Predict the 3D structure of the following.
Amino acid sequence: MSELLHRVKVFVYRVVEARPSYLLMRSAIGAESFWTPLHGPIGFGEKLETAMRRSVLNDLGLARADATVDMKLPTHWVLGDEEVIEWSYGFRAPAEVERFQLDPRWAECRWSQFESAYPSLELEADRAAIMRLHTLLAA
């Protein structure tokens, strides 16, 4: 029997001079961690948008968004006896935000333009999600 887990992936972005940049995170766990969007669990009975906002507040200290985007791009994968469904969101941070109050589970973060953010993401699902967000923002 497999365990079903729901997680939210949050692509935090800001727009400066009409150009979006994306916040990439590196985990404090593991010597070989890779760049990723912010992510966290969805609590039992918790709404997706509530989980997204909670993750941003707890992991970055950001309480407000200029806008949020439901990318309508869930991903589903199975690893052993875990079945995971991830829900991707965009979270527009205020343009003036430079520094964060990082949760200790994160070693570092950086703002990146799309051209460097896309190849920095290790997982294909993350690259597909940032491509979707970047396309939606350009529309």
